[in-house]
Design a protein that fits this description.
Strand content of chain A: 15-25%
Shape of chain A: elongated
Oligomer: homodimer
Strand order of the largest sheet of chain A: 1-5-6-12-11-10-7-9-8
Structural class of chain A: alpha+beta
Distance between the termini of chain A: 47 Å
Largest sheet of chain A: 9 strands, mixed
C-alpha cells in the first residue's frame, strides 16, 4: 500500500473543484440559451475522427492526438485522432448528413477538443469550445457574417465579463493587399503575420524576410494594415490612403464595411474593424473574427472564427459555404481564474440541509426531504445522527443556505434556519420557499 | 476534387441528426436536475488519465485507448489514455483534492467515456454516462447504498421510459456463498458468472469447469443464487434454503435486506433484490446494481454500479469508501432508438420564424426578431427575401411552430401564423406568447 500511483495533474488538462466547476457550468448554460434564442440547434459530433479528415487543407502542423487500442493486434492501425476544433467536424457532419439536413443549417456545439501542444501558460491540451456555425448550399448571405459576432457579443454580455471588443477582419483585404504589393505566396505570409501577438513586430519582419524572402521594405509594407482598427467603416479610407490597389482588396473592403454597418446597433466597443486579424487556419476565405480581454491582451484570443467557403468540398461534390465563430470557454475561464476574477459558487447545489438528530428519526428526515424535493427545492439530508453543530458546520462549508429541522416531537412544527441571516423560525413545509 | 475523403461513420461512434440529439440533450438536462435535487454537485474530470491510473485493480483487460501526439518525438511516451468509466477518475479526483473537498463528497458527472471494443450491436466505443457517487472518509453509511437506486429510479421516471426494474445485489452474498462452497478463487468465478446474460447458463458452467476447474456439481451449485430475484427481503429465506453458510454471506444478506427495506416506499417494480448480479469490475466490495429494459433484456445493462471500499487507496493513504451508480445514457438511448421508441424533436429550437418578404425590409425583420428575443422567445429570421411559400416551407421542415409577419406597410400590424392550427391573426409583439 506504500507504492501509490502518481496523481499529480498532467499539465494542460484543467480540472476544477466543485465550487469553480459550478461557475463554468452556469456559463455554458447561459451561452447555450443565447445560441438557442437565435435558432441554432445543438448537435454533437464524436470526439474521434478519421485522421485524414483532421488533416484538412494542409493543416499538417496541428498537434493531433492519435488513438491506439492498448490491446491492439500488430498491424491494426486505426488511423483515428481526437478532434482539435469543431469546424472540421461540422463540415464532415454536414457532408455526411447532406440529404437529411435543412439548409441553411444552423447549429451550435459545446464540446471539448484536444491539442497535443507543449504545455505553456494559457495553453490547454484539453479544452471546451462553444461554436456556432451556419452552412448553406451554393451561397451563404453575408449578413450571417454579422450575425456571428452579434450572438457572441450577447453571450459575453450575459456572462458579465471584463470588457472585450470583438475584432472583425477579412482575409480578402489582407490577401488582396499582399497581392497588390506583388507578393505571390500570400498563404505563408499570412501565417507569419498571424504570429504578431505572439512574437511581436520585429520578429514578424525578420521571419518575413527569411522564408518567403520579402525584401525588408516589402515586409514592412506587408505589415501596414495591422495597425488599422476602427469602430466604424472608416477603416476603408485608411486602407485606400496606403495606395495599394487590387480587385480582391476592394471586394474585402466592401464585405467588411457591410458587416460593420449591420452591427451599428450594438453597444459602443462591442465590435470593431480590425485589419490585424489574420487567423492561422488556412480554411478561412473571407470574414475573420478574433477577440481578447482588453485588460490582458497578451493572454491570447478568447473568441475566434471566420468564413470558409470550401471546407466541406474535401468530402462531397457540393459547394457548402459556411461561417462560424467559437468562444474559447476554457481559455476565457482560465484567464479570469488566473486573475482571481471568478467568484466561487457554493460547493453543493442543495438549497436545504435536513438535520438528523437521532437515529430513530431517519424516516422523518427522509420523508421531509422527499416533500421538499417534490416541491422543486433541492434538498439533502445530513448523513449521520451526530451533534447538531457538526451538521450545521457541514451546511456552512458546503454553502447550503437553509438548514431544516423536521418536527421530531409530536405536535412540534417544522423549523428552518437561514444560514445567512442567522435566524431560525417555524415554516410551513407545503408553502415555504427559499429566498435567493 | 474527385478524390474525396472517407466520411463513412466509424463503427461504435454514435452521432445523431439535430432532431434526435435534441431529445438526448433534454434527457441529460432532466437527469442533471434530478441529481441536483438531492444535492449532488456537478464536477468534470479530464478525459485523459495517466495509463497506470486506468489500469486499476488488475483491470488490464479493459480496452483502453492510448494517446500519442502525431508529431511526437522519438522516445516521447506520454502514457496517457482516455478514461473508460467515471469511477476510477472520481477516485483519483477525490484523492488528489482530498484537502479541499467537504465529506461526504457527493458529486455527479455526465461525460463521454471511450472503450476500444470490437464494434458489435449495442456496444459503443464512445458513449455518455451519467454517474452519481458519494465518497466519505473512513466510513460511509449504508443508507447511501439505497439512495443511489432511489435517485436513478426518479431519473428513469422523469424520462418516461419503458419499464425498468433496478436489480440490487451484494458481492458479499456471492463471495461468501462461493467461499461457503469451498471455492478459493472467487474473483475468477464471479467474473465468469457475470457473463451469464451474454453467454448463457450452459456456457458459464462449461467455463467454470475449465479455468477455475470446478467440478460440474460445484459449478452448478455456484450458479444457484442467480435465479433468486425478489421484490422484498424474502431473498434471504431463499438463500438460507440452499443450506450453504458463511459469515460473509450473512453480512451480505443483512446489508441487502437493509437496502431493500429502505426503498419500500418506491413504486412497485422500481427495484428488486437480484442475486444474479455480479458486475465485471473487480473494485466492487458490497452492494451492486444493474438494470435492463424489461422488454428487451438481451440488449444489455443500462444502469450499473456498486460500492467500492478501497478504490482510492491506490492513490492515497486514506480509507475512502464510496458507492455510485451510472446511467448508461448512450446505450439506453441507442436501444430505444433501435426499437423506434424515440419521438423526434423539432430540427430547430426556434419558436418563431420571421418572414423576410423584400430586400428593403431587412431592418424591420431584424428589429422584430430582437424584440421577440429580448422577451425570451427563441426567434430566427428567414435568410433571404424569396417567395413567402418557400419561407413557410422552411418553418415546416424545421418544425418551427410560429411564422411572424412584421408590419411592412405603414399602419399595418404584426401578424403571426400558427403552423399547427393553420390560422393567422394579428399579434401584439409586446405581449404575444407562443402556446405550447
Amino acid at each position: 500500500m506504500t507504492n501509490k500511483k502518481n496523481m499529480t495533474p498532467v499539465g494542460g488538462f484543467p480540472e476544477y473543484l466543485p465550487e469553480i466547476h459550478a461557475v463554468e457550468q452556469s456559463w455554458t448554460d447561459r451561452i447555450r440559451k443565447v445560441f438557442e434564442a437565435s435558432g441554432y440547434a445543438p448537435i454533437e459530433t464524436v470526439a474521434v475522427e478519421r485522421l485524414d479528415a483532421l488533416l484538412a487543407k494542409g493543416e499538417t502542423d496541428k498537434e493531433i492526438y492519435t488513438l491506439t487500442r492498448l490491446q491492439a493486434e500488430e498491424d491494426e492501425n486505426a488511423k483515428l485522432g481526437l478532434h482539435f476544433d469543431l469546424t472540421i467536424p461540422v463540415a464532415r457532419y454536414v457532408a455526411q448528413n447532406f440529404n437529411d439536413l435543412t439548409f441553411p443549417f444552423k447549429r451550435y456545439q459545446i464540446q471539448k477538443v484536444w491539442r497535443g501542444e507543449r504545455p505553456q501558460v494559457g495553453r490547454y491540451r484539453e479544452f471546451r469550445q462553444c461554436d456556432i456555425d451556419v452552412i448553406n448550399v451554393d451561397n451563404l448571405p453575408l449578413h450571417f457574417d454579422a450575425e456571428m459576432p452579434e450572438i457572441v457579443a450577447e453571450c459575453l454580455m450575459r456572462l458579465d465579463l471584463p470588457p472585450v471588443t470583438i475584432g472583425i477582419g477579412n482575409r480578402k483585404i489582407l490577401d488582396g493587399y499582399l497581392q497588390g504589393l506583388g507578393i505571390e505566396d500570400t498563404v505563408s505570409v499570412i501565417r507569419i503575420i498571424d504570429k504578431l501577438d505572439k512574437i511581436g513586430f520585429d520578429e514578424v519582419i525578420a521571419e518575413l524576410t527569411k522564408a518567403p524572402a520579402l525584401d525588408p521594405d516589402t515586409a514592412r509594407r506587408a505589415m501596414a494594415l495591422t495597425t488599422i482598427k476602427t469602430a466604424d467603416t472608416s477603416f476603408a479610407k485608411a486602407v485606400h490612403a496606403i495606395g495599394v490597389t487590387h480587385p480582391l482588396l476592394d471586394e474585402g473592403i466592401e464585405e467588411l464595411a457591410f458587416v460593420i454597418k449591420e452591427l451599428a446597433h450594438l453597444p459602443a466597443d462591442a465590435i470593431q474593424a480590425d485589419l490585424s486579424i489574420a487567423r492561422g487556419f488556412d480554411y478561412y476565405t473571407g470574414t475573420v473574427y478574433e477577440a481578447r480581454f482588453k485588460d490582458f491582451p497578451g493572454a491570447g484570443a478568447i473568441v475566434a472564427g471566420g468564413r470558409y467557403d470550401n471546407l466541406a468540398s474535401q468530402f462531397i461534390n457540393k459547394k457548402l459555404p459556411g461561417v462560424g465563430i467559437s468562444i474559447g470557454l476554457s481559455r476565457m475561464f482560465g484567464q479570469l481564474l488566473a486573475k482571481n476574477l471568478i467568484a466561487k459558487a457554493q460547493q453543493s447545489p442543495s438549497q436545504v440541509l435536513v438535520i438528523w438528530p437521532r437515529n430513530a428519526d431517519r424516516e422523518c428526515i427522509t420523508g421531509t426531504a422527499r416533500i421538499l424535493r417534490a416541491r422543486g427545492i433541492r434538498t439533502e439530508c445530513y448523513h449521520a445522527p451526530v451533534k447538531i453543530q457538526r451538521q450545521i458546520a457541514y451546511a456552512e462549508k458546503k454553502g447550503i443556505p437553509f438548514v431544516w429541522f423536521p418536527p421530531f416531537e409530536p405536535g412540534s412544527m417544522h423549523e428552518v434556519k437561514d444560514m445567512k441571516a442567522r435566524t431560525q423560525s417555524q415554516a410551513d413545509i407545503e408553502n415555504w420557499e427559499p429566498s435567493k
